[in-house]
Amino acid sequence: MKITVFNGSPWGERGHTHIMAEEFEKGAVQAGAKCRNVLLVSKKIQPCNECGTCMFKTPGVCRMKDDMPELISEFVDSDIVVFATPVFIDNVTALMKTFIDRLLPVLEPHYEKDSNGEYRRRKRYKTYPKFAVISSCAMPEQSNFQVLRLYFRRMARTMHTEVVGEIYRGAAGLLLLSEKEFRFKPMVDKYKELLRASGKELVEIGRIGPNTTERLEQPLIDSDEYVAYANKMWDQLLTERRTPAFAASR
């Protein structure tokens, strides 16, 4: 099984999302999958302007000269594609959205009805990869992922596939804080173990099952305790006029 993780975090390897994806991949590899982690921040991806070239003039091929042809090949050749993104203002990052928009060449221009009688574009390829989602959010509630849950399920319908795994983590700041605040380390280590188990399960049974998904949704810490700690840290950063350590080099 080939799994490709497209990470749309502008923080790349320094962000919460990468930590989650990395642990997930460890479990998938343990179960026999071949994984590749693509950091979109390191790629040149221009925004789609829907000029129609990939639909009509050169079917399936975009006119823009950047890294997307390689990424589209990686997408199509995968058994499972994982979209990894932090939540920015209740949605995916601009980087992830730009990448997704540029996947348009994998579809044909003609419309057809799906099994529910709703129109979508026809397939350009015989098969498409299954989808999984990994997302992090600094705020604690799982309700912060409502838009992403719907977005990726709708996108899967558009792309003639299905979502076979969803991993959403509120209070994701703990994943980085645990490196300095050792009182958070036990809960984060336990969560990382669950991430590895979810990657393994996805490979072994083809999806992340409901029991594992339910465990992934459980809070790592009381929301009020987390927010009190976070606000204290924000006050300190404001006083010192500096950014968080993981953002300091950008």
Percent range for β-strand residues: 15-25%
Taking the sheet with the most strands, its summary is: 5 strands, parallel
Q: Which class of secondary structure composition applies to the elements?
A: alpha/beta
Mean pLDDT reading: 93
- One letter per element, helices H and strands E, the order comes to EHEHHEHEEEHEHHHH
Percent of residues in helices? 40-55%
Rounded to the nearest angstrom, the radius of gyration is: 19 Å
Q: Order of strands across the widest beta sheet?
A: 2-1-3-6-7
How many individual helices?
9
- So, the CATH homologous superfamily? Flavodoxin domain
Low-confidence stretches: none
Description:
It is a single chain. Helix 1 crosses helix 7 and helix 7 packs antiparallel against helix 8. Strands 2-1-3-6-7 form a five-stranded parallel β-sheet, with helices on both faces. It has a two-stranded antiparallel sheet with strand order 4-5. The protein contains nine helices and seven strands. The chain is 41% helix and 18% strand. Strand 1, helix 1 and strand 2 form a beta-alpha-beta unit. By secondary structure, it is α/β, with parallel strands linked by helices. The protein has a single domain, classed as Rossmann fold (3-Layer(aba) Sandwich). The model has no long low-confidence stretch (mean pLDDT 93).
